[in-house]
Amino acid sequence: MCHVIVTCRSMLWTLLSIVVAFAELIAFMSPDWLLGYPRSAPSVTGASVGSGEYRPSLGLYSRCLRVGSRGQGISCGPYAGTFGEVASGFWKAAMLFLAAGTLVLGCVACISIFSLCFQSILKKSIFNICGLLQAIAGLLLMVGLMLYPAGWGSDKVISYCGTEASPFRPSMCSLGWAFYAAIGGTLATFLCAVLSAQAEIATSSDKVQEEIEEGKSLICLL
Known about the structure:
The protein has one domain: Butyryl-CoA Dehydrogenase, subunit A, domain 3, CATH 1.20.140. Helix content is about 50%, strand content about 15%. The chain has six helices and eleven strands. The chain has helices spanning about 10-30, 90-115, 125-145, 155-160, 175-205, 205-215; strands at about 5, 35, 40, 55, 55-60, 60-65, 75-80, 120, 125, 175, 220. It has a five-stranded antiparallel sheet with strand order 7-6-5-2-10. α1 (about 10-30) runs antiparallel to α5 (about 175-205) and α3 packs antiparallel against α5 (about 175-205). The chain starts with a strand and ends with a strand. About 35% of the residues are buried. This is LHFPL tetraspan subfamily member 2a protein-like.
Protein backbone atom coordinates (compact mmCIF):
# COMPACT_ATOMS: atom_id res chain seq x y z
CA MET A 1 0.00 0.00 0.00
CA CYS A 2 1.28 3.46 -0.90
CA HIS A 3 1.59 5.80 2.07
CA VAL A 4 1.95 9.48 1.17
CA ILE A 5 4.22 10.92 3.86
CA VAL A 6 4.75 14.67 4.00
CA THR A 7 6.92 16.35 6.63
CA CYS A 8 8.48 19.80 6.73
CA ARG A 9 11.99 18.42 6.27
CA SER A 10 11.09 16.02 3.46
CA MET A 11 9.10 18.70 1.62
CA LEU A 12 11.93 21.21 2.03
CA TRP A 13 14.39 18.69 0.61
CA THR A 14 12.11 17.91 -2.33
CA LEU A 15 11.50 21.56 -3.23
CA LEU A 16 15.16 22.51 -2.87
CA SER A 17 16.23 19.53 -5.00
CA ILE A 18 13.95 20.69 -7.81
CA VAL A 19 15.07 24.34 -7.54
CA VAL A 20 18.76 23.38 -7.58
CA ALA A 21 18.34 21.22 -10.68
CA PHE A 22 16.60 24.03 -12.57
CA ALA A 23 19.14 26.61 -11.39
CA GLU A 24 22.08 24.57 -12.66
CA LEU A 25 20.34 23.86 -15.98
CA ILE A 26 19.52 27.53 -16.58
CA ALA A 27 23.04 28.61 -15.63
CA PHE A 28 24.58 25.99 -17.94
CA MET A 29 22.53 27.20 -20.91
CA SER A 30 22.95 30.92 -20.24
CA PRO A 31 25.38 33.11 -22.26
CA ASP A 32 25.95 35.36 -19.23
CA TRP A 33 29.02 33.72 -17.71
CA LEU A 34 31.36 36.51 -18.76
CA LEU A 35 30.51 40.12 -19.55
CA GLY A 36 32.90 41.66 -22.08
CA TYR A 37 34.43 45.12 -21.85
CA PRO A 38 32.10 48.04 -22.76
CA ARG A 39 31.83 48.68 -26.48
CA SER A 40 30.22 51.44 -28.51
CA ALA A 41 27.18 50.38 -30.47
CA PRO A 42 27.27 51.49 -34.11
CA SER A 43 25.09 54.38 -35.21
CA VAL A 44 23.11 54.73 -38.44
CA THR A 45 26.05 56.42 -40.16
CA GLY A 46 28.43 53.67 -39.10
CA ALA A 47 30.36 55.86 -36.67
CA SER A 48 31.91 54.20 -33.68
CA VAL A 49 29.77 56.13 -31.20
CA GLY A 50 26.15 57.02 -31.48
CA SER A 51 23.88 54.53 -29.77
CA GLY A 52 25.59 54.21 -26.38
CA GLU A 53 27.75 51.47 -24.92
CA TYR A 54 26.92 47.85 -24.30
CA ARG A 55 28.67 44.79 -22.97
CA PRO A 56 28.62 41.56 -24.99
CA SER A 57 28.29 38.36 -22.99
CA LEU A 58 29.94 34.99 -23.42
CA GLY A 59 28.83 31.65 -22.06
CA LEU A 60 30.25 28.17 -22.20
CA TYR A 61 29.00 27.63 -25.74
CA SER A 62 26.83 30.68 -26.50
CA ARG A 63 27.11 34.46 -26.72
CA CYS A 64 25.04 37.65 -27.00
CA LEU A 65 25.99 40.53 -29.32
CA ARG A 66 24.34 43.68 -30.61
CA VAL A 67 23.69 43.58 -34.34
CA GLY A 68 22.06 45.79 -36.96
CA SER A 69 22.93 49.13 -38.46
CA ARG A 70 21.77 50.97 -35.34
CA GLY A 71 23.13 48.45 -32.85
CA GLN A 72 19.69 48.07 -31.29
CA GLY A 73 19.09 44.37 -31.94
CA ILE A 74 20.53 41.69 -29.70
CA SER A 75 21.53 38.37 -31.19
CA CYS A 76 21.97 35.48 -28.76
CA GLY A 77 22.87 31.96 -29.76
CA PRO A 78 25.60 29.33 -29.81
CA TYR A 79 28.99 30.42 -31.12
CA ALA A 80 30.05 26.77 -31.30
CA GLY A 81 28.31 24.66 -33.90
CA THR A 82 29.90 21.49 -32.54
CA PHE A 83 31.51 20.44 -29.29
CA GLY A 84 34.92 20.70 -30.94
CA GLU A 85 34.38 24.43 -31.57
CA VAL A 86 34.03 25.29 -27.88
CA ALA A 87 36.46 28.07 -26.99
CA SER A 88 38.89 26.08 -24.84
CA GLY A 89 39.82 22.54 -23.89
CA PHE A 90 39.27 23.53 -20.27
CA TRP A 91 35.77 24.71 -21.14
CA LYS A 92 35.06 21.42 -22.89
CA ALA A 93 36.06 19.55 -19.74
CA ALA A 94 34.06 21.99 -17.59
CA MET A 95 31.00 21.44 -19.77
CA LEU A 96 31.27 17.67 -19.37
CA PHE A 97 31.50 17.88 -15.58
CA LEU A 98 28.75 20.49 -15.31
CA ALA A 99 26.48 18.57 -17.68
CA ALA A 100 27.04 15.34 -15.76
CA GLY A 101 26.32 17.03 -12.43
CA THR A 102 23.20 18.72 -13.80
CA LEU A 103 21.96 15.44 -15.27
CA VAL A 104 22.34 13.71 -11.89
CA LEU A 105 20.49 16.57 -10.19
CA GLY A 106 17.70 16.32 -12.73
CA CYS A 107 17.30 12.61 -12.03
CA VAL A 108 17.27 13.21 -8.28
CA ALA A 109 14.68 15.99 -8.69
CA CYS A 110 12.37 13.55 -10.48
CA ILE A 111 12.92 10.84 -7.88
CA SER A 112 12.31 13.30 -5.04
CA ILE A 113 8.75 13.84 -6.23
CA PHE A 114 8.02 10.12 -5.94
CA SER A 115 9.63 10.07 -2.48
CA LEU A 116 6.34 11.41 -1.13
CA CYS A 117 4.83 8.01 -1.82
CA PHE A 118 7.78 5.61 -2.02
CA GLN A 119 10.43 5.89 0.67
CA SER A 120 12.63 2.97 -0.39
CA ILE A 121 14.12 1.37 -3.50
CA LEU A 122 15.14 -2.30 -3.25
CA LYS A 123 14.93 -1.97 0.55
CA LYS A 124 17.32 1.00 0.46
CA SER A 125 16.21 4.42 1.68
CA ILE A 126 15.40 6.65 -1.27
CA PHE A 127 16.61 9.66 0.73
CA ASN A 128 20.00 8.13 1.44
CA ILE A 129 20.44 7.13 -2.20
CA CYS A 130 19.47 10.58 -3.44
CA GLY A 131 21.66 12.26 -0.84
CA LEU A 132 24.65 10.26 -2.05
CA LEU A 133 23.85 11.15 -5.68
CA GLN A 134 23.57 14.83 -4.75
CA ALA A 135 26.95 14.75 -3.03
CA ILE A 136 28.46 13.20 -6.18
CA ALA A 137 26.73 15.82 -8.34
CA GLY A 138 28.10 18.57 -6.11
CA LEU A 139 31.64 17.27 -6.58
CA LEU A 140 31.16 17.12 -10.38
CA LEU A 141 29.85 20.67 -10.43
CA MET A 142 32.69 21.89 -8.24
CA VAL A 143 35.31 20.38 -10.56
CA GLY A 144 33.57 21.97 -13.55
CA LEU A 145 33.56 25.39 -11.91
CA MET A 146 37.25 25.06 -11.04
CA LEU A 147 38.11 24.21 -14.65
CA TYR A 148 36.11 27.08 -16.13
CA PRO A 149 38.47 29.99 -15.22
CA ALA A 150 41.43 28.04 -16.63
CA GLY A 151 39.98 28.64 -20.09
CA TRP A 152 40.04 32.44 -19.88
CA GLY A 153 43.25 32.56 -21.92
CA SER A 154 41.57 31.28 -25.11
CA ASP A 155 41.33 33.40 -28.26
CA LYS A 156 37.55 33.66 -27.87
CA VAL A 157 37.81 35.12 -24.38
CA ILE A 158 40.60 37.47 -25.44
CA SER A 159 38.32 38.90 -28.14
CA TYR A 160 35.75 39.69 -25.46
CA CYS A 161 38.00 40.64 -22.54
CA GLY A 162 41.11 42.18 -24.10
CA THR A 163 44.61 40.98 -24.86
CA GLU A 164 45.59 40.78 -21.20
CA ALA A 165 43.08 38.01 -20.47
CA SER A 166 44.74 34.83 -19.23
CA PRO A 167 43.81 31.73 -17.20
CA PHE A 168 42.12 32.79 -13.92
CA ARG A 169 42.45 36.46 -14.97
CA PRO A 170 39.50 37.81 -16.99
CA SER A 171 41.17 41.21 -17.52
CA MET A 172 38.49 43.70 -18.67
CA CYS A 173 35.63 41.20 -18.33
CA SER A 174 33.47 40.71 -15.28
CA LEU A 175 31.64 37.62 -14.12
CA GLY A 176 27.98 37.35 -15.06
CA TRP A 177 25.03 36.13 -13.05
CA ALA A 178 25.16 32.63 -14.55
CA PHE A 179 28.55 31.92 -12.95
CA TYR A 180 27.29 33.01 -9.54
CA ALA A 181 24.08 31.01 -10.04
CA ALA A 182 26.17 27.92 -10.78
CA ILE A 183 28.21 28.49 -7.61
CA GLY A 184 25.06 29.02 -5.54
CA GLY A 185 23.49 25.91 -7.03
CA THR A 186 26.59 23.88 -6.18
CA LEU A 187 26.52 25.00 -2.56
CA ALA A 188 22.79 24.29 -2.40
CA THR A 189 23.46 20.81 -3.81
CA PHE A 190 25.64 19.95 -0.82
CA LEU A 191 22.94 21.40 1.44
CA CYS A 192 20.43 19.06 -0.22
CA ALA A 193 22.72 16.12 0.50
CA VAL A 194 22.66 17.05 4.19
CA LEU A 195 18.90 17.64 4.22
CA SER A 196 18.29 14.22 2.70
CA ALA A 197 19.45 12.62 5.95
CA GLN A 198 17.04 14.83 7.89
CA ALA A 199 14.23 13.90 5.51
CA GLU A 200 14.96 10.21 6.13
CA ILE A 201 14.81 10.75 9.89
CA ALA A 202 11.55 12.70 9.64
CA THR A 203 9.74 10.15 7.45
CA SER A 204 10.79 7.15 9.55
CA SER A 205 10.01 8.66 12.96
CA ASP A 206 7.83 6.97 15.58
CA LYS A 207 4.97 9.37 14.87
CA VAL A 208 4.92 8.33 11.23
CA GLN A 209 4.92 4.64 12.17
CA GLU A 210 2.00 5.22 14.54
CA GLU A 211 0.04 6.91 11.76
CA ILE A 212 0.77 3.97 9.42
CA GLU A 213 -0.37 1.44 12.04
CA GLU A 214 -3.62 3.37 12.38
CA GLY A 215 -4.26 2.70 8.68
CA LYS A 216 -3.82 6.24 7.38
CA SER A 217 -2.66 6.56 3.77
CA LEU A 218 -2.02 10.32 3.89
CA ILE A 219 0.34 11.40 6.68
CA CYS A 220 1.22 15.04 7.21
CA LEU A 221 3.51 16.03 10.07
CA LEU A 222 5.12 19.34 10.95
